[in-house]
Amino acid sequence: MNKTADTLIQFSDVQKSYDGKSLVIKNLSLSIFKGEFLTLLGASGSGKTTTLMMLAGFESPTRGEIRMRGKPIEHVPAHQRGMGMVFQNYALFPHMSVAENLAYPLKMRRMDRTERDIKVKRAIDMVQLHGMEQRRPTELSGGQQQRVALARAMVFEPDVILMDEPLGALDKNLREHMQYEIKQLHRSLGVTVVYVTHDQSEALTMSDRVAVFHKGDIAQIGSPSTLYERPNTAYVANFIGENNTLTGTPALVENGCCHISLAGGVTVKGSASHLNGYLPKQVELIIRPEKIRLTEASETSYRAVVTDKVYLGEHIRVHLQLANEHKLVVRVANDQASRNLQCGHITGFRWDVADAHAFPLN
Amino acid sequence: MDASESLAVAHHRSSRRKRMVSVLLLLPLVSYTAVFFLLPIGMMLYRAVSNPELIDAFPRTVQALNHRSFDRDADLPEETVFKALEQDFIKATSLGVIGDAARRLNYENSGYRSLIMTTARYYRKRTQTILQAGSARERLEAVDNRWTTPVLWRDFQRASPAYTPYYLLAALDLKQTPEGIERVPAHQRVNLDLTLRTLKIASIVSLSCLILGFPLAALMVKASRTIQIVLLLAVMLPFWTSLLARTSAWIVVLQEKGLLNTLLMRLGVIDQPIALIFNSIGVYIVMVHILLPFTVLPLYNVMKGIPSHYMRASESMGGHPIRGFFYVYLPLTLTGIGSGTLLTFIVAAGYYVTPTLVGSAREQMLGYYIAFYTNTTVNWGMASALGIVLIAGVLMVYLLAARLVGIRQIAGLR
């Protein structure tokens, strides 16, 4: 993907306030590239949905500018923006059949009936809902409603499709299946998708890029692997995936490696790349459960007591207690060694310095 | 016994207690409805066709006539009938019964009242003994010679059965003649106009309520909580003031030297006061005000249940908000439009006090005449027949609405 050349939508210094007092969006600059699958990820109230609504035309920015293909669109009403949208509760019209729902955007475009019928049929094929054409939305299962909503947003072949937590109402298995289907459709149609979710695993699975929203700002934007492997703030590190956090005092930094002394006299090491060359009073060391490896207890390794073991099938979660209340969760493969671990025993553990990120704590 | 049957039996047995409880819970309402709603309506239906006056007053005569016909001019009843008539007059327990019969016979042809009452007074002074001698027919002819005209006996015969279509036909400006059912003479045709006027006033009022109420309900749904409460209170206000107080207040505002006319004349908008009350304008203004809540509340209720993202969805698919309104919003409010308008229509069609107070004679509705026949002329048959016309009219509109909107929708179910 040629990112610089194919910017489709550009947010420049966008601010949004609903009450004239506080900002919901503080200062948003964001480029959306043609054909990408961009996820806006964040907790509720982080500004992700507001951003989507501004893009759709249902809210207007208080300050700043949104451009599409270089042209400002703040004053283009929603119905002229030509973006497909999938709503949280699908918003299928209950008084229309599936076919009528699918024909609606075409009817609004004053397309003639024969062409309309062809496109509706194609959309039905695309989401595999044969035989459901004459049903009312209420007669469909959640997954089928979801498919109709998807088809309806795509049937008029928009360049951009906006999705506002579209899978929130589905159960886990169906959600995973639909994630896959949406991803397939995105690949086959080459359409640009802007997807809002609060579910970080959904964001990682589906997206080309993820923008993590935090309190009205983008905390970090990048590919799923970048966010997961190289989070640039403690918030992102904690929000994406599971993490262990150890709080301590940085003793020294050498060769990009920060030595941190924890309460209780243990010293651990982590990457200093996020400290930007200066030494704060306190740091958080963040490390993922699967990056910690259990070893024999020896002089060179860290040591801890096994307090609990949770069997999860393909892997095992081991709870460790370090000196002085510091706790860690470790995720290990389900093999002979880990099965032999006993609660109350002392084990050694280690991690690669590059996998443990030290962030200044304020 | 196969397995499914035994299951059904077992289910029936195990849910008996539940059914008993349901029946017990319903019992008070069912008995209340039966006694105070179904029974009176049944009685009203009965009153519209029941025709007891002549049988009560002249049981022997009616018996003696016994389906004789008086088609030809020469036809007159035999002496036995006249004798029976004399007996009935003499043995009449009270003048009241005779009076009812006189009034009833008078519906057939005005003038019969005096005939009956004169004859009754004549026989009140006589005793049984006079029946022994002479011809009853001649005695009656001497009292009033109309007793020996076939047309009287034909009318008497028609008025005498225990049940009559007379009132129901009269409510539709029809009457029974020897030639069959005919329209009454043009100058007597008032009831059909009355019914049509009632339906017209109710329709105009419910349509006006819809035109005023729809935007109001839509605003109430969209407005902030505070404005929503203020508007709701304003709409509900007519419910909390006495009907008479409200109507009188409107008279104060709308009369010739009332607030509105004074204000308009001060402002120089008009030179002469405009007639706003004691005519149809007044009736419409006041009735719309009073009945607005009946339209607004069901509408508001339905609109509140329409998620705002439907309209957004329509816009996202390229629908201009106005087209979205007609294709999405309006169809979804049909339930509320149907039930609100129907409710308003039904209540308006039965209105009585307001048109009486703020309308002229030309705005009086069925309700007024039902009260008139009940209280003033004590013509229960006519009052009941008009009541049936009212119920039938409302029922027709109801069926029409059920046909158009669906019965579940009107009941507020989706």
From TrEMBL, chain A:
<keyword id="KW-0067">ATP-binding</keyword>
<dbReference type="InterPro" id="IPR050093">
    <property type="entry name" value="ABC_SmlMolc_Importer"/>
</dbReference>
<keyword id="KW-1003">Cell membrane</keyword>
<dbReference type="Pfam" id="PF00005">
    <property type="entry name" value="ABC_tran"/>
</dbReference>
<dbReference type="InterPro" id="IPR027417">
    <property type="entry name" value="P-loop_NTPase"/>
</dbReference>
<dbReference type="InterPro" id="IPR005893">
    <property type="entry name" value="PotA-like"/>
</dbReference>
<dbReference type="InterPro" id="IPR017871">
    <property type="entry name" value="ABC_transporter-like_CS"/>
</dbReference>
<dbReference type="InterPro" id="IPR012340">
    <property type="entry name" value="NA-bd_OB-fold"/>
</dbReference>
<dbReference type="Pfam" id="PF08402">
    <property type="entry name" value="TOBE_2"/>
</dbReference>
<feature type="domain" description="ABC transporter">
    <location>
        <begin position="9"/>
        <end position="240"/>
    </location>
</feature>
<dbReference type="InterPro" id="IPR013611">
    <property type="entry name" value="Transp-assoc_OB_typ2"/>
</dbReference>
<comment type="function">
    <text>Part of the ABC transporter complex PotABCD involved in spermidine/putrescine import. Responsible for energy coupling to the transport system.</text>
</comment>
<comment type="similarity">
    <text>Belongs to the ABC transporter superfamily. Spermidine/putrescine importer (TC 3.A.1.11.1) family.</text>
</comment>
<dbReference type="InterPro" id="IPR008995">
    <property type="entry name" value="Mo/tungstate-bd_C_term_dom"/>
</dbReference>
<keyword id="KW-0547">Nucleotide-binding</keyword>
<keyword id="KW-0472">Membrane</keyword>
<dbReference type="InterPro" id="IPR003593">
    <property type="entry name" value="AAA+_ATPase"/>
</dbReference>
<dbReference type="InterPro" id="IPR003439">
    <property type="entry name" value="ABC_transporter-like_ATP-bd"/>
</dbReference>
<comment type="subunit">
    <text>The complex is composed of two ATP-binding proteins (PotA), two transmembrane proteins (PotB and PotC) and a solute-binding protein (PotD).</text>
</comment>
<keyword id="KW-1278">Translocase</keyword>
<keyword id="KW-0813">Transport</keyword>
<protein>
    <recommendedName>
        <fullName>Spermidine/putrescine import ATP-binding protein PotA</fullName>
        <ecNumber>7.6.2.11</ecNumber>
    </recommendedName>
</protein>
From TrEMBL, chain B:
<feature type="transmembrane region" description="Helical">
    <location>
        <begin position="230"/>
        <end position="254"/>
    </location>
</feature>
<feature type="transmembrane region" description="Helical">
    <location>
        <begin position="274"/>
        <end position="303"/>
    </location>
</feature>
<dbReference type="InterPro" id="IPR000515">
    <property type="entry name" value="MetI-like"/>
</dbReference>
<keyword id="KW-1133">Transmembrane helix</keyword>
<protein>
    <submittedName>
        <fullName>ABC transporter permease</fullName>
    </submittedName>
</protein>
<comment type="similarity">
    <text>Belongs to the binding-protein-dependent transport system permease family. CysTW subfamily.</text>
</comment>
<keyword id="KW-1003">Cell membrane</keyword>
<feature type="transmembrane region" description="Helical">
    <location>
        <begin position="201"/>
        <end position="221"/>
    </location>
</feature>
<feature type="transmembrane region" description="Helical">
    <location>
        <begin position="382"/>
        <end position="405"/>
    </location>
</feature>
<keyword id="KW-0813">Transport</keyword>
<feature type="domain" description="ABC transmembrane type-1">
    <location>
        <begin position="195"/>
        <end position="401"/>
    </location>
</feature>
<feature type="transmembrane region" description="Helical">
    <location>
        <begin position="324"/>
        <end position="353"/>
    </location>
</feature>
<dbReference type="InterPro" id="IPR035906">
    <property type="entry name" value="MetI-like_sf"/>
</dbReference>
<keyword id="KW-0472">Membrane</keyword>
<feature type="transmembrane region" description="Helical">
    <location>
        <begin position="21"/>
        <end position="46"/>
    </location>
</feature>
<keyword id="KW-0812">Transmembrane</keyword>
